[in-house]
Amino acid sequence: MIETASRRPTLRLREVVTRLRDASRALDAGGARGRRALPSRAALSSVVTSLRGALFPAHFGASDLSDDGLDFFVGHTLDTTLVALHGQVRRGVGYACDRREAECERCETRAVEVTQAFADRLPAVRRMLEADVNAAYDGDPAAGSVDETVFCYPGVAAITYHRLAHELYLLGVPLIPRIIGEIAHSETGIDIHPGAEIGESFFIDHGSGVVIGETAVIGKRVRLYQGVTLGAKSFPLDENGHPKKGIPRHPIVEDDVVVYAGATILGRITIGRGSSIGGNVWLTRSVPPFSRVTQAAVQSDSFEDGSGI
Question: 246: which DSSP letter?
């Protein structure tokens, strides 16, 4: 039986378009931000994918690259990718600029400076990522090789994107670091705010459902399992009833801490070095170094004296 093409319906859209336009104007408040091009999530997704290839060319470059070819691949990838990043940084800087002209020399100068500074930091980022990859391999008996962790582990992908986003965050780029963080979130199920400070040899095993807040500080050789939250306990409000921005409100996790699946750690508290936080623990108070905290320990406060359990 041959299907015939259905007739194209006639829809009345003029009023819908007008109402959508009015709604957009209300959101933009008619300011300069509403008239300037915003960063593109699609373009930034391509940028971070390419940067991951430049950081791990043996894994995400062409499979037949020679040693000399690796250098060419990295150089070419960085050249094209950083040019694309500059364009997005220019949009991000322009988003926050108080000048109204479409072409702002100050924004252009700032975008070039940020892109160069970001490029200069990439070798240090790569060294930290090598420690993260090794931590994933050493921390998981199911890992058959270091290459397997690079190719397959969502925790490695998430920390790769985070370390890139964090550098842009430190450089003061508006909006773009958060977009990159959400790209990683959508791809891995791991939600790390770009402002979080994370030391080297960091490993998230399995990964899904992990949340790390903006002002969290994580030391070296820390390991988290799926479903862990490092969040805020409450949100102090300003005189208008809005949450205050940028104040420390997330946990400090010192070196060599392990946090098991489903644990929730809230507020500006400190998890002492060498501690172990058990699965499904709800923790809102600091614990001293080398504590072993379980649900039973939290209920009995037995970790408060520092003796551990």
Answer: S
Q: Which CATH number fits domain 209-309: 3.30.470.20, 2.160.10.10, 3.40.50.80, 2.60.40.1180?
A: 2.160.10.10
Hey, CA dihedral for 101, 105, 110, 116, is it positive or negative? positive
Location of each CATH 1.10.3130.10 domain in the chain: 39-189
Query: Could you tell me if 275 and 293 are in contact, meaning their C-beta atoms sit under 8 angstroms apart?
Result: yes
Q: Where in the chain is the domain with CATH 2.160.10.10?
A: 209-309
Q: What is the amino acid identity at position 185?
A: H
C-alpha distance from residue 137 to each of 54, 144, 197, 260, 304 (Å):
21, 8, 22, 18, 34
Beta bridge partners of 198: 218
What percentage of the chain's residues is helix, strand, coil (to nearest 5)? 45, 10, 40
Write the CB contacts of 53 (distance below 8 Å, at least 6 apart in sequence): 60, 61, 73, 77
What fold does the segment set 39-189 form as a domain? serine acetyltransferase, domain 1 (1.10.3130)
Q: Please say whether the beta carbons of 34 and 25 come within 8 A.
A: yes
Q: Report phi then psi at 227, rounded to 5.
A: 75, 10
Going residue by residue through the chain (309 aa), what tens digit of pLDDT does each one get?
A: 555 567 889 999 999 999 998 887 776 654 445 556 899 999 999 999 999 999 999 899 877 777 778 888 999 999 999 999 999 999 999 988 877 666 788 999 999 999 999 999 999 999 999 999 999 999 999 999 999 999 999 999 999 999 999 999 999 999 999 999 999 999 999 999 999 999 999 999 999 999 999 999 999 999 999 999 999 998 888 888 888 888 999 999 999 999 999 999 999 999 999 999 999 999 999 999 999 999 876 666 666 545 444
- Counting every residue written for the chain, the total comes to 309
